[in-house]
């Protein structure tokens, strides 16, 4: 039998640490030499210089000097826990995804919650989106659902993501703010980007200051695809519903908590799990087909839009329980590598241009962040199912893969021939017809940036609306450039007059003209000759 090419994901059995090495009390160098003294360097005489031959000193210092790795380019500040996903409602008619094959089936999982903008040491209660990333270790490989606690996103196209993040992160000429909060570059960007308006309403709402990770929803955001064993496909949107209910703090509380205990969210999660008060979420889906999608006047491929639950109710199919705290923050929380591209048979992508770009970005950044293509062998990332492929070598290779054939096709036999792809059971991308001229211009179906923002505002209670107004006024009040405030108010008039007026009143500003309501993307830019030809013949 061909051995697994990957380090087992489970923790060492008993006192076994790694590859048969036992845990022990005796202090050693990294290569196992027992130390006689771990505190004092080897010197000449009573006060003399330290000797270069002191391998024990060099071993200790060498490792320390290289402890840091790059923090995540976004979502640097996060906290994780181990979890179990249990299927409540088997849906083989919709998907062959292993976790939903039979009722009661349990799948090991790992969850990381995060803020987006802040650095590794930033406070937990920042006004920010929260990441909600779940890795499911299925028998068909790892499936990552890399979501947020807000069901929509700031932008429609992945090409804008670096701009968004440059605008939201600390400003490069001064180094602040360290966490998402009021500053000119962020408001400049979003005021010029009407497609951000819906997400902005959510970000200024109580959703962006959850009381704890335990009391927030999660969303896959994009439209994905389910695929069943017959190759039939439907669209699907994923939702995590907290069984604890939803709670937020008010801004005044957030500021005080950040001052008193910037670790409030991670401490809360750790304490709940440690005390056995295990947090749970229901995993729900909105499933629909092309015909249903075509009935909307927005595009289901547009990540700035949601499908209202009143129109399409969420069907609960599984339950996630966070049941074990991490043992080692670095090995697990820092080294875990999520990616939207990690899918399993039964799950596929839609043409959402944000999702398509994400599928490139995560793997790319993780090579930089974790330093080797072999990060999938780290225990937190290693699949719990057998792994067999023709990849080999690379930095930090730990696999003792045997056999001669590490290429295909090959005609060797038995163990030497290596694994073979399985055309029936293996992953097959959904067959779909794609055609049309190459173009960068977005479809008209992506052009309405305000209707759902208005729906969200109107769906809020009076108190919640007051919080939204207060948040806009607080944030815009910190913006130094008055042109940005004015532009933002002009956009808000397209959401709702009451909102724009209340924010303007709080800022003691006159209400400007409403900005152009539906701004078709890029019409302000000169059209390329190629596009003119396509349009005009
Ligand atoms: C983290 C890129 C949009 C959720 C990251 C990271 C990158 C990235 C490079 C760091 C990953 C790492 O170092 O391991 C992008 C790009 C996007 C995008 C290019 C848009 C084009 C989104 C959206 C969501 C999201 C729409 C939510 C639906 C997350 C989460 C993490 C993350 C939860 C943290 C994962 C963790 O806890 O390790 N993203 N992102 N991102 N992103 Fe995105």
Automatic annotation (TrEMBL):
Catalase core domain sequence ranges: 28-416
Compositionally skewed regions (Polar residues) per UniProt: 1-9, 28-42
The UniProt record lists the keyword Metal-binding: yes
Its EC number(s): 1.11.1.6
Keywords: Heme, Hydrogen peroxide, Iron, Metal-binding, Oxidoreductase, Peroxidase
Cofactor: heme
Annotated segments matching region Disordered: 1-45, 399-419
Biased composition (Basic and acidic residues): 12-26
Enzymatic reactions: 2 H2O2 = O2 + 2 H2O
DNA-binding as UniProt keyword: no
Recorded family membership: Belongs to the catalase family. HPII subfamily.
Name of the protein in question: Catalase
Organism in which the protein naturally occurs: Nocardioides furvisabuli
Residues of the full protein shown: 4 to 540 of 692
